[in-house]
Amino acid sequence: MQSEMTVQSAVQEVKAAPSELVKMCDDELDAVRLCIQLSKFTQDFIGKRLSIDKGYMTRLLQGNAGALMQKRIALMRLCGTYAPVQFECAELGLVPVPADEYERLVAAAAQLESVKMNGTRKAS
Known about the structure:
The protein has about 120 residues and is mainly α. Helices cover about 65% and strands about 0% of the residues.
């Protein structure tokens, strides 16, 4: 409980879950469970922070309640991992890339294209 109190005041950086663990998920609910497990928070703690009562939280994690859609982003921020997004992307053949890394890749691609264009002009 003490470690939960310490961590709750710190701002969590949301990062990727290990891909080998995400690949083991059979469905989105498994990815949500993974997200919670990697946080090392208890279900009770997470439920309280997300304003979900204990019984409903239990039903959610058993797959016997409605979707967690309204609380997904808050859950991922609280737990510090975006395993549910990784699972969805994998199912669609996509790879989630953080915005700063995406911008770096776009800039590198533009620079490469510029180098190719300058090389083509010199060769002509």
